[in-house]
Design a protein that fits this description.
Blueprint lengths: L2 E6 L1 H5 L3 H10 L3 E8 L3 H7 L9 H8 L4 E7 L3 H9 L12 H5 L8 E3 L3 H11 L7
Antiparallel strand pairs: 1-3, 1-4, 2-3
The structure holds guanosine-5'-triphosphate (GTP) and magnesium ion.
Length: 137
């Protein structure tokens, strides 16, 4: 479909990159449908990343994602999920292409500035996790 879900992660918020990242998102042709500054509890982060619970980095990921405020947003563009994954770049910034958000703002494979949904199904689940129906414009 034409929607995806993103988070600007605690590392990027701490460093003052909210404006820069939202600017790159807008410049790439995404419309902001929903937007909020919020913070995940440890339980929220465990639930959001439950799919990674067996991975060795799960504890570190949960601690990182709950340590400070994040920006959550629903974005709209044709082919949104795939287009946004292209815009953010590879998980590890060392592998991220020139011109991507992670190339510019990520510091490591863990602290990589932004999240992007990996499927239409997960975009819908993650959007509902963060936004009430009345906030999904
Ligand atoms: P998301 O958009 O955040 O889902 O990233 P992704 O789809 O590019 O990567 P993936 O879903 O495989 O991993 C989710 C998140 O876990 C990553 O974005 C990182 O923040 C973190 N992560 C992945 N691999 C590692 C790792 O090897 N070490 C650490 N510390 N964190 C990792
Ligand atoms: Mg992922």
């Amino acid at each position: 479909t034409n929607r995806t879900f993103t988070m600007i992660k605690p590392d990027a918020v701490e460093k003052g990159h909210i404006g820069g990242i939202l600017g790159m998102i807008a410049d790439a042709g995404f419309k902001i449908v929903s937007l909020k500054l919020t913070q995940l509890t440890v339980a929220d982060a465990q639930a959001f990343y439950a799919v990674h619970s067996a991975r060795p980095f799960y504890g570190e990921l949960v601690e990182f994602m709950s340590r400070g405020p994040i920006v959550a947003a629903i974005l709209e563009k044709e082919n949104a999920v795939e287009e946004f994954r292209t815009l953010i770049g590879a998980t590890n910034p060392a592998d991220a292409a020139e011109g991507t958000i992670r190339k510019k703002y990520a510091t490591s494979i863990g602290e990589n500035a932004v999240h992007g949904s990996d499927s239409d199904e997960n975009a819908a689940i993650e959007s509902t996790f963060h936004f009430a129906v009345r906030e999904q414009f």
